[in-house]
Every structure is written in C-alpha cells, then in structure tokens.
Amino acid sequence: MFEPSPLMDSASIILYHKQSTSAMTRFFRLDGGSVLIGHPLAKLSRVVTGEVEPDSSVVPHPGSITAEIERWLGLASGDLEAEPEYHERVEVPGKIVRIYLARFKTIDPPFAEAEAVNGSFVALTQMRSATPVELELLRTAYTMIMEG
After folding, report:
1. Which fold has domain 12-147?
2. 20 to 30 A Cα–Cα from 90, which one of 38, 43, 56, 73?
C-alpha cells in the first residue's frame, strides 16, 4: 500500500500509459478501485474551477511527486513524466487537493510493478463504478491525453 509522504498532504496523481502504436490508454488503479494516488478524497469532494480562491498552501512540484511514485513502484528514474498541462483542483472538507497527471514512458505498462503493489492497469470503460469526482477527473485527463 502507498503511504504518501507529507509532500502529498494536499495532492494526488493519476497515472496512465498510452501505447505509442495503437494509442490504447490504460490508467493505473489501486486495489481499492481508485485511480488517485495520494491524498484520499472524501465523499463530499467536488472538482472546482476558478470560483474558488486559490489557497495559500505550499504546492508540490509534479516532478517531486513522480519521483516518489517511481521509488514506490520500483521504477527507474524518469520512467514517469508529469503532464504540465494537466492540473485540476478538488475541494475536500477543509482544503483544496491538487490533482496531477503523469505518463508511464515505458514501451509497455509496467504490469509486474503494478501487481507488486496490488495495482493494475485498466481501460477507461472499466472505471464506470468510480465516484463522480473520479469520473470527472478521468474525463478531463482522457480529453487532454487524446488531444495531446
């Protein structure tokens, strides 16, 4: 199980792999069913836009988060690349959680490494039972991935 460092007190990340030849896109999912790694989201969470004033908390750099995830998964440094265009915010009771997106740069998804931490790679269609907040985050992530 992933034990997030204080770096991720107010952040989560979505990981994906996009096949270079077929564009098949899979998301890394934890054994509990979530694609969000890091700060857990409460049931009362909601994706926010510009209507919420930015909070004054320290914002972690996506590269620091990807380095932490690489260590956890036992990947080589540089196997994950943060997507600089993707940054969402989710309001949870008492704070704003920043959501980042990172891509596995490996030729194939690291299935063995995912299995070692009780994770798996799933297609977007396998996430139908996700929470509305996760579905919205996946929608915006998938749109950015396909347009990029």
Report:
1. Nucleoside Triphosphate Pyrophosphohydrolase (3.90.79)
2. 73
Tokens linked to 105: 């740069």
Residue located via tokens 């069913």: 33
- Compute the CA torsion angle 70, 72, 75, 79 (nearest 10 deg): -20
What gap in Å lies between CA 114 and CA 103, rounded to an integer?
A: 14
- For the whole model, what pTM was predicted? 0.92
**Token pair belonging to 65:** 């988060």
Dihedral sign, CA of 41, 43, 46, 52?
negative
Exposed/middle/buried for 51, CB within 10 Å: 0-12, 13-18, 19+?
Answer: exposed
86, burial (CB in 10 Å: exposed 0-12, middle 13-18, buried 19+): buried
Q: What is the pLDDT of residues 63-108, one digit of tens each?
A: 999 999 999 999 999 999 999 999 999 999 888 899 999 999 999 9
| Residue 76: Cβ within 10 Å count | 10
